[in-house]
């Protein structure tokens, strides 16, 4: 009885009302694999058509038909954005970065429709990027790359320092060689050597200028090609492996929010129930008091 009284005396906790999550009809329409498969098929077919158009050139006999189908696909993608917006609601829709990405891609496609500047036609190919937002696995990889961006930039900075030091040393030691005549040429040569392009020929040629050229090239290759470049791979692999864990954490947080909302609703229901019970008890007491009163 004491617990019920305490619960009844406690006012309901104020909850922040969530905005509308869109229209149920459009949530049902866009929330099934038929819709996702249809949009993915449209993206792939549109990419193939753009490739065929580029392969055949501007004077191909199918240009009018290709342009017509491009407009059809652009209309489909526009309707998709509208349906997704109505299904999720404004707040949730623009909170998702991939939705903003899709809006930008479709917007660039409308700019490419303009016949005023022929070069703008090449912007149509950006629609192929929608494959990234349409396929969850590809989205995870891109998100992992953005997560690993600080590590990638740090690795790139280390690699830049290694290249610069090696270029200065190479220009100083092998200035008479055309591949190392200045700092710019040395950097280009070292970049090719890091990819093992003409590595053996370069060693033989530089041995003419310095007997220890092999030591210089081996040291640079080990540091640049084997050590620093592998840092990029390690950072990216670590980010890709951590991506599913981040996704699971987000899902857990969403479930916890839903559980918290349900708990709030249960507390409010218990409060209302106890208030009603107290009102009923008070009415019963009043009725009993009226019955006990002597007749006038």
Model description:
The chain has 296 residues and is mainly α. It has two domains: 111 residues, Voltage-gated potassium channels. Chain C (Four Helix Bundle (Hemerythrin (Met), subunit A), Up-down Bundle); 162 residues, Orthogonal Bundle (Helix Hairpins), CATH 1.10.287. 78% of the residues lie in helices and 0% in strands. The protein is built from twelve helices and no strands. Helix 1 crosses helix 12. It is elongated and about 130 Å long.
Beta-strand content estimate: under 5%
Q: Which architecture name of the largest domain does CATH use?
A: Orthogonal Bundle
Distance between the termini: 37 Å
How would the global form be characterised? elongated
Low-pLDDT sequence parts: 1-20
If you compute it from the alpha carbons, what radius of gyration comes out, rounded to the nearest whole angstrom?
Answer: 34 Å
What's the average pLDDT? 79
Q: What is the multimeric organization of the chains shown?
A: single chain
| Class from secondary-structure proportions | mainly alpha
Distinct helical segment count = 12
N-to-C series of helices and strands: HHHHHHHHHHHH
**Proportion in helices:** over 70%
User: In the residues, how many domains can be counted?
Assistant: 2
**DSSP strand tally:** 0
Largest sheet: none
CATH topology of the largest domain: Helix Hairpins
The CATH class of the largest domain is Mainly Alpha
């Amino acid at each position: 009885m004491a617990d019920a009284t305490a619960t009844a005396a406690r006012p309901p906790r104020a909850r922040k009302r969530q905005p509308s999550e869109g229209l149920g009809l459009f949530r049902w329409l866009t929330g099934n694999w038929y819709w996702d498969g249809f949009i993915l098929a449209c993206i792939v077919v549109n990419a193939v058509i753009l490739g065929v158009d580029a392969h055949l050139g501007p004077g191909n006999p199918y240009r009018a038909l290709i342009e017509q189908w491009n407009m059809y696909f652009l209309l489909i993608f526009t309707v998709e954005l509208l349906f997704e917006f109505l299904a999720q609601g404004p707040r949730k829709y623009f909170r998702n970065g991939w939705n903003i990405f899709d809006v930008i891609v479709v917007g660039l496609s409308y700019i490419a429709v303009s016949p005023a500047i022929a070069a703008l036609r090449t912007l149509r190919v950006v629609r192929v990027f929608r494959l990234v937002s349409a396929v969850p696995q590809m989205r995870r990889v891109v998100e992992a790359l953005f997560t690993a961006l600080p590590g990638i930039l740090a690795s790139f900075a280390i690699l830049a320092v290694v290249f610069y030091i090696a270029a200065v040393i190479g220009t100083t030691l092998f200035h008479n060689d055309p591949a190392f005549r200045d700092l710019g040429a040395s950097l280009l040569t070292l970049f090719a050597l890091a990819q093992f392009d003409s590595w053996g020929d370069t060693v033989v040629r530089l041995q003419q200028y310095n007997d220890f050229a092999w030591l210089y090239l081996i040291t640079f290759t080990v540091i640049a090609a084997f050590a620093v470049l592998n840092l990029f791979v390690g950072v990216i692999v670590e980010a890709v492996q951590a991506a599913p864990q981040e996704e699971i954490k987000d899902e857990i947080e969403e479930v916890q929010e839903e559980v918290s909302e349900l708990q709030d609703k249960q507390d409010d229901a218990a409060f209302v129930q106890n208030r009603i019970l107290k009102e009923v008890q008070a009415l019963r007491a009043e009725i009993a008091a009226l019955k006990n009163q002597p007749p006038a």
